[in-house]
Design brief:
The structure holds 2 protein chains of 2 kinds. By secondary structure, chain A is an all-alpha fold. Chain A has 14 helices and 2 strands. In chain A, helix 3 packs across helix 9 and helix 3 crosses helix 13. Chain B is mostly helical. Helix content of chain B is 72%, strand content 2%. Chain B has a two-stranded antiparallel ribbon with strand order 1-4. Chain B has a two-stranded antiparallel ribbon with strand order 2-3. The chains are: A mainly alpha, B mainly alpha.
Chain lengths: 325, 329
Amino acid sequence: VIGMSVLTEGARRAAPRWLIRHETLLAVILIVALAILGLCNDRFLTIDNLLNQGRLMTEVGIIALPMTFIIITGGIDLSVGSVVGLCAIMLGYSWKNFGFPLPLAIVFSLSVGAAAGFVNGLLITRVRVPPLIMTIATLALYRGLAEGISQAHSVRNYPEWFFFVGQGEWLGVPTQLWFLLAGIIAAGIALDRTTFGRTLYAIGNNETAARFSGLPVDRVKLLIYTLSGLAAGVSAWVLVSRVTTTRSDMGIGYELDVIAAVVLGGTSIFGGAGTIWGSVVGLVMIQLLKNGLALTGVKGDATIIVIGVVLIASTLIASSLQRRR
Amino acid sequence: VSATIIAPARAGEGGFLRAFASQEGLLAFAIIAVAILVGLDNARFLAARNLSDIVLGNAYIAVAAVGMSMVIVSGNIDISVGALIGVLATISGSLAVAGAPLALVWAAPLIVGVLVMMLQGAVIAYLKIPAIVVTLGMLSILKGGLISVTGGRWITDLPESFHLADIELFGILPMPVVIMVAATILAAFWMRYSARGRAIYATGGNAEAARLVGVSPQRTVVMVFALHGFFAGIAALLFATQLKVIQSTVPPNLELTVITAAVVGGVSILGGVGTVVGSTLAAVLIAEIASALVFINVSPYWIHAVQGVLILATVVADILRRRRRRAGG
């Protein structure tokens, strides 16, 4: 009976009316922004530019999906950027120095990503290290491993076929966008239509209650942190394929873009509420903001100021809306 | 519960063994052990010049870690401090080159540091936004702002009088060490014996209990961040004046080193526990290890991995120790 009430409570809070409004509002703002940017610059609203922006946002977007799960449970993963760096290095290093065939190197790099996330999850669930400090520690550790293993040497000269994922097209759409699309559909269904998704909301609303209701809290948490590491691995693969080289400083600062997209999309930083749909809208908004600013002549470094402001402002607005309710 | 939190930690109890088993004792032991072990392998590590370089070059990290310790004890975190130090160093250096009076050149980073951190503290305390979100946002605002304004150029031709870090008090005591030791001792006594200092522990230990005994958690958090900004200002001055030039960019990964020093120094990430003596010793230990890597022919590229392992080991040990204590009684 208690379990039932937690789940229905979770289900009710998962889609409160302000959140639906939040996302609708966001979508409206997005359309208005698109229209204004399109009017200001005739290079903006072209299919080519939009598809290219889709290509550029995939690396952050793939990580934003499991990050949505994690933030819904009230956790956070700051190590994602460092996992991207570590996986990129493991891909190039195992291919060049271990002599792995490239497909095996890709699989190896993805397993390193999953293992990196698994270690985060293991210490968070077994030792009960708070996610914030655990992932700050591995932010340093994984970046340090990437730097130590590579000794700051880059890896180049990948074969031509390897660039298909990052630079190629399938049915006229950039290859990696299909990855992202598949991820979005899978994550959306998992969050909205399965007991796994319900469990995430239950943990975020009241972890103790979820535990007493017999929900597999630790197993689910272990899974989402592992997924986060795996997603960072996929992101590294796409990134290396797009820029044709491997460096240990890859992915620095990704945590900012990913968390900003998720929070802007209406996922509560306090846990318990959020949707994949919202994160996708947040992601698109941030990418278009970057692109729009770049087209109007703002330099790349200045756009991170805007993203920082967006992160703080959207958290402020969301929490004040929540309080008023 | 609140009464025991507010009482000075471990006051009066003592004995050599207890002091040795404390985090500070362990760190002091580790500093000496690393020096001996590395010295056996390569005696040049123990040269007076090298040892003094380790302390002089990293005193600013210890000073910043004093403020970071207070922030973490109060139950918060700040990842914007590295970017802030970069901004403050640039402000100070630019003023010095522009020929501003020395008092202004030295006061400006302190004032701006306090204002920026107070703003963050107020947003965290009164608008109830998690510290990680506010400081992550501020990190990118400061970083992007600094690069767009300065373009990352080098500030050169700094006037001779600007170099605070080169001053030697009474002809022998180098300023960075004097400031590091003074900041640590003053902050340690203040946190341990003053009512406001104890309020930081109370807020981090149990904010609701703190409120019930008449401590305002909100005001305490704003005060803590203001002090943190002050220490960041001093750290920026030491950082800016130790070389003849300043690069007007954000020093990479500085916030991680400062957080590592605070956490490894024994400041519990669960809030409510920790001392700044530990964080200063930890800052010295981290700098010593970074220098030792070179002397034992290990690539310095491993230093961030070492930092990560140090944080993890300290945090896990802290949690397991607490769990055993709770289970034991």
